[in-house]
Records
---
Amino acid sequence: MPKNATKKNGEVSKNRLKKEKQKEANVGKTIAIFLIVLVVLGLSIGILFSPAFNLTEVIIKDGTNVKAEEISSLLDVKYGENVLKQKYKKIKESVLSLPYIKDAKVTINFPDKIKVAYIERRPYATIKFLETFFVTDRFGYLLEANKENKFPDLPILYGIELEGYELGNQLAEVSGLKYKNIVQLLETAKQKNIPYTISEIDYESVSEVKLWIKESDIEIVYGEIKKEMLIDKLNYLSEVMKTLIAEGKRGSVDVSSDTYLEETIFTDINNM
């Protein structure tokens, strides 16, 4: 027999053997997958029908401004029913309906518990509108409303219209723009370590914003909040206020002009 024919027959045998082994391997994989599916199916059926997986508890911890009780009262859960049959999307939506809740996560603690974790919005300022104090977070979400000021350490804002807004809403349009400007002013003052605390802001007039600081009885007529002037103007005010506070002055400082460096006016009420 020619050498080429022998070589060719050998290669055919090798290929046939390789295909047979591959076929056997595929059959083995199929059987393994089938067995795994059976096990998973069996476990699933066991979990669905075993009373050991019936809901007995919803785990919720108290937050800073949200109580577990408050969240629990909103949840549509069915105790004694399988944990896998609970309406998790609806549970999460109920938690997120609270104005203070920024984000929430609902998980199963096998075998018979559900855990609710959440992130709270942080109070940032208080808006005084009519006779009510509205607490807001840094991004302008309305968190709660009170007849008395519940957070005296937060700056109080005046001149921001809240007609038609509901708790949980975010400020928009003119009110939202005013609020963003105030946040930028407060954050810039914080970042630049301005040595006084802005306790009240009147934004009734866009061109004549007024500030009051915690450390003295001095009204600051700031003027329009312009982003490009914030740092320089606050640094200048910092030096002016240091001097006035050191001297025990009471009155009004007007830096509302764009040429405030030359036109700063101080009115001393002690000499009126």
Note: The chain has a mean pLDDT of 87.
---
Amino acid sequence: MSLWDKLKDAITTDDAEAADEARREAEQAQAEADKAKVEAQARADEARRKADEAAEKAGLPSATEEEKSQADEARQQAEAEAKAAQEAQAEADRKAEEKAQKAIDKANARREKRQEQREEAREERQEARQEARQDAREERQDARHEAASEEVYTVKSGDTLSEIGQRYGVDWREIARVNNIEDPNLIFPGQKFRIPKK
């Protein structure tokens, strides 16, 4: 599995900016690891080639002890170079994995922060809705209480708003306002008016 595939598994695509940044970091880490592997492999190949040349010289019937010794030394050096190349490849992979993990952690931290911010915003909206509902309930209760505390008067023949207001000690204009009376001079027997409290 490539580093980018690991990143894709670790982060979600809903945070495109973090995903892109993590992808770039992973690609850079992978490129550095690949370059280190190629260089290490080239050194190992060169050491093997030298060892093969020395071994070929040492295998000739006319080879001297010194050439045979050089061949052994070249073979040992080639083995050491191959081992160093393997270690360099492993180190490059480790560094690439480390960078990829940092990118994953960074992307996850961003995602978690955004999730926390969304959760906080959701909670704030919920609190605001609850406050609005509570305010509306209180207003309805106040209106019901006010309505319950008002008296209702049924108009009789010959009544006027000013007389009704005097009877209850309330300004006739307030009675007209509460009952949406457009023409205070035009009221009829049987009409019911709410009488506001003083």
Note: The first strand starts at residue 151 and ends at 154.
---
Amino acid sequence: MTKQQKLKQQSDITAEQVRDYLLETPDFFNQYPELLEEAKVTNQQGGVVSLTMRQLALLRDKNEKAHKQLEGLLAIARENDALFGRMQQLTTALIDARCVEDVFATLDDTLRDCFGADFFAIRLIANDDCLDFPISDVLWEKDGIELENFKRVFDSQKIKCGHPTHAQAKSLFNEQAENVHSVALIPLKIDKQDGLLAIGSKSEDRFHPTMGTLFLAHLGELVGKRLASLQYIDKK
């Protein structure tokens, strides 16, 4: 093979082949360290720098991204720790409740003070075992129009967060409906009775579809069990 043929064959090597070779030969630049200074690449500002400088810049970018990710994780950890403390406070207060009215008063105080909620409401679906309730405007009839506004929540038994419809806000918060711009809808199970715990906010961003619902689920289970236990005591 002539020298000209060899040069032509070398010129047929693609960039992908060079890339694959370098990946398969990680010690290539150890064998030819002079290439680190000779090879020139374009940086983000459009200037030309050595390969070594470009590598250092990439490492700095990676470190900055890792630092921001760590800060985000720490912020989430601090927020979860604070939420856990508030859940403990709420749990203790609900255990101390001696009647259904105490549960409502506790939720009204604690959700506002500890969870930044502006409004809350509890609605229960009336059944044969519970045709009345010690607090007015809490029971919904089985065939009531209100249930249609929350059919997806009751059918799925999953927490739903986001912007309520006007009909939903009106059914839950009455005259305060116009002030509720985001809401968390938490299905309740009180013995054999279905219900709904709603937490409303004046802020559109307070409750949104992508937020975590772990603590909301714990809250719903806690409230449901405490109401069930108090209703059982009242029936004795």
Note: Strands lie at 40-42, 48-50, 119-125, 139-140, 160-162, 182-190, 193-201.
---
Amino acid sequence: MTPNTFDSVEARPVPDTASRLEVAGLVALLVFTVMSTLGYGFFALHPENLPSSESALRFYNISFQFFAQLHILIAFGALAIVLVRRLEAAWLPAFAAVYLLSFVFEHIGTGYGIPFGGYEYTGLLGARLGPRVPFLIPLSWFLMTLPCWIVARAAFSRQIALRVGLGAMGLVLWDLALDPAMSALTPYWRWEETGPYYGMPWMNLVGWFATGTVLMIALERLGGDTLADRLPVRWMAAYYAVVAALPLGMLGAAGEWLGIWVTLVAFSITGVAVMIVRVQIGEAALVTRAPTVQSGKAS
């Protein structure tokens, strides 16, 4: 019998630490993120700093249009290094499921306003898959869904409901910075009805959590222990932080401290809640394993 993809992957030794190539991919993403943030703060927010030559202005216009697209592609490249090196082709079913499901949610959302609220993408994110959704958008969902799932599984290795909820919350926390940066500061998408938080309706956060929950369940079904056990948790956490640094950096460059504080406070509250739940689960497990005592004798 020919071994399946998972069997062939499991037969290989799992590196305990990130390789130089994996680190290099993460560093490249970080460098691009820093350069993009500096460019946004120095040129986009202060057009007077732009050189007056026609070629310089043309270069800036092209850079502004494509920097978000390049960020997604470079982030995918950094993640693909880890996935291919450690999993070969075993990650592709999970990737296909997350891409397809997130596209469906985005396609319905841009057409009917469910579950995020009414919105539309502008032309800044490039070619579209269908009439409304840029093909890079489902890719960006995968880029952050996977690290959220890996970190959540590390936090709650046995409680599937808790890790699915935590993984979905990780996506919501990312959007607290992403949406202000990409819809309020820059016009990558527009809301049909504005809300109190940088023009974003609160329904959007509910939609992100619902979508994230579905995506986490898909990873649980298609990834399971095989993918989770072979991917480095610390690298994935660092990757999540670097990707989230772009919208946070843009907010900081624009002086929009409300978005930064809301994001950081939400992260802190979530982190404290996770620690409390982990302690309670540990105590409950300890009580379950302890012998009961009746009439002075252990039962």
Note: The beta strands are 119-121, 128-129, 133-134, 189-191, 293-294, 297-298.
